[in-house]
Write a structure and sequence with these properties.
With about 230 residues, the chain is an alpha/beta fold. The protein has one domain: TIM Barrel, CATH 3.20.20. About 40% of the residues lie in helices and about 15% in strands. The protein contains nine helices and eight strands. Helix 2 (about 40-50) links the parallel strand 1 and strand 2. The longest helix is centred in the N-terminal third of the chain and has 18 residues, at about 5-20. Bound molecules: pyridoxal-5'-phosphate.
């Protein structure tokens, strides 16, 4: 069995190779370690190997882990679906939120972000595959929603996030990520962040401009939801 440190160096090599192939500097691409269902001890091991950014999908699970890891200077990212009654805790306990897809949620995060903290970094999740079950605003909704969120205080709109339909077809992966990149450019807001690419498709995402790749399985191993 490979360790988290081994997995991280394999990932660094994948990211470097993908960046090189795309003519990009590897430093433009940052790794977000997605630790849902994994224990705090796994995050601690990842930190020891060099991970500094951690992504969580479920609020209570994230708060529990944060409580066990207060001694580590980690940056916490919320990447899961957001219910209205969870916004206060998210605004108080995270530095980034990648999964905003409604104005009401953004308004609550803005109102509830504590004054003493830096602006909360926001990515707007867009659904580029048109799957009804997926979170994310539609491409049609995006311009008005992005403009409204960019105007809210105590939030900093950084870019777009997407989870395209899973496929092994590299051309299809790239087409979906290219769509996200083009949508972001068309907003004309000078956004600097594209949160896209997971364990199975990070190469295609990097080829199309990803700045955060969100990696769970390839870093921590397969998830066992039965024990989550
Ligand atoms: C679980 C999850 C990931 C990580 O997926 P892997 O395929 O395990 O790398 C990335 N982004 C989001 C939003 C997730 O929920």
């Amino acid at each position: 069995m490979s360790t988290i440190a081994d997995n991280l160096s394999t990932l660094a090599a994948r990211i470097n190779a993908a960046a090189q192939a795309a003519g990009r500097a590897p430093s433009e691409i940052r790794l977000l370690a997605v630790s849902k269902t994994k224990p705090a001890s796994a995050v601690r091991e990842a930190f020891a190997a060099g991970v500094r950014d951690v992504g969580e999908n479920y609020l209570q699970e994230a708060l529990n882990k944060q409580g066990e890891l207060t001694d580590l200077p980690l940056t916490w990212h919320f990447i899961g679906p957001i219910q209205s009654n969870k916004t206060r805790a998210i605004a108080e306990h995270f530095d980034w939120v990648h999964s905003v897809d409604r104005l009401k949620i953004a308004q609550r995060l803005s109102e509830q972000r504590p004054d003493g903290l830096e602006s909360l970094n926001i990515c707007l999740q867009v659904n580029v595959s048109g799957e009804a079950s997926k979170s994310g605003c539609t491409p049609d909704e995006l311009p008005a929603l992005a403009a409204a969120i960019a105007a809210l205080p105590r939030l900093k709109l950084r870019g777009l996030m997407a989870i395209p339909e899973a496929t092994d077809d590299r051309a299809a992966q790239e087409a979906a990520f290219a769509r996200v990149r083009e949508l972001q450019a068309s907003l004309g807001l000078g956004l600097d962040t594209l949160s896209m690419g997971m364990s199975h498709d990070l190469e295609a995402a990097i080829a199309q401009g990803a700045t955060w790749v969100r990696i769970g399985t390839a870093l921590f191993g397969a998830r066992d939801y039965g024990q989550a």
